[in-house]
Amino acid sequence: MNTTRRPIAISCGEPAGIGPEIAVTAWNAVGKDIPMVWIGDPAHLPDGTKWQAVTSARDAITATAFPVLQRDFGATSVAGQPDPSHAQAVIDSIADAVALVQSGDCTALCTAPIHKQALIDGADFAYPGHTEYLAALAGRTSVVMMLASELLRVVPATIHIPLAQVPEKLTAATLTDTILITHSALIRDFGIAKPRLSVAGLNPHAGEGGKMGHEEIEMITPTLDALRAEGLSITGPLSADTMFHPAARATYDAAICMYHDQALIPIKTLDFSGGVNITLGLPFVRTSPDHGTAFDIAGTGTADATSMIAAIRMAADMARARTAPAA
């Protein structure tokens, strides 16, 4: 199968959310250029969807309607009302999609939003989210979450933990892994030969010489110095409030932030609809729209598929970068 024509695997996500709707919209928008295959129960697709059952990823390439690797979830879906009885099938959809990518039948994975509480209630889901589950499926202990758009790429060194726990969890090892994984991904997945990274401080004004905290002096700066000595192009630690205006963004390829909101607030402010969630450090490409299940508008036909389309386009671009001949 030609590398450029392998489809992208799309896991269905939460059936009661907007995932099925935006997947269909995305296929209608870019399916002719980027083949894809959706793994889920077609009974959960929007009313009137023209879909086509396929038995393999190869069949999706020539599909003339929305291509579905059909799964039976056993229960109907009500928009806006997550059903825990769907939980295991949702989890299996993710695992099936990963298997397709790992086998080479699909070129990349794009995941629709899940509802973690439904997965916990229905299947004792043991992971904080997609990122951690995908790492487990891939056998990786260190992965990194990137949020990316045409305007900005950001990476939080700590993710889904309370803010009070950030200073404890933010270690030299964690920061080093985050920076090295990001640096490698920018080369491999984005085709940037010499990545430039800017790193935020943890405290206001990057600690202001110890007056507002000592993490920058005691851990962050020595960690960055060690990586700079290895040849990485890194600036920082910088005051986070000066890192995201246009002139500053032009000086780096990705910003490393210390915690979740420090990274996500700027990108969601700059490009709320176009942001893409990417998991770096996996042996395969994984992207996702940078939003949740949107139960409040599910089933109304008003969901904006911009982020889903951006996630599919970015997955295709990253997959091409991974298979491109070395310069």
Automatic annotation (TrEMBL):
Its cofactor is Zn(2+); Mg(2+); Co(2+). One of its GO terms (cellular component) is cytoplasm. Its EC number is 1.1.1.262. GO terms for molecular function: 4-hydroxythreonine-4-phosphate dehydrogenase activity; cobalt ion binding; magnesium ion binding; NAD binding; zinc ion binding. It comes from the Bacteria. Keywords: Cobalt, Cytoplasm, Magnesium, Metal-binding, NAD, NADP, Oxidoreductase, Pyridoxine biosynthesis, Zinc. Pfam families: PdxA (PF04166). The keyword NAD applies. The keyword Phosphoprotein does not apply. Substrate binds at H130, T131, K268, N277, R286. Coiled coil: none annotated. Pathway: Cofactor biosynthesis; pyridoxine 5'-phosphate biosynthesis; pyridoxine 5'-phosphate from D-erythrose 4-phosphate: step 4/5. InterPro entries: PdxA (IPR037510), PdxA_fam (IPR005255). Binds 1 divalent metal cation per subunit. Can use ions such as Zn(2+), Mg(2+) or Co(2+). GO terms for biological process: pyridoxal phosphate biosynthetic process; pyridoxine biosynthetic process. It catalyses: 4-(phosphooxy)-L-threonine + NAD(+) = 3-amino-2-oxopropyl phosphate + CO2 + NADH. It is an enzyme of class 1 (oxidoreductase). It is found in: Cytoplasm. A divalent metal cation binds at H160, H205, H260. Its main location: cytoplasm. Catalyzes the NAD(P)-dependent oxidation of 4-(phosphooxy)-L-threonine (HTP) into 2-amino-3-oxo-4-(phosphooxy)butyric acid which spontaneously decarboxylates to form 3-amino-2-oxopropyl phosphate (AHAP). Belongs to the PdxA family. The active site is located at the dimer interface. Homodimer. This is 4-hydroxythreonine-4-phosphate dehydrogenase.
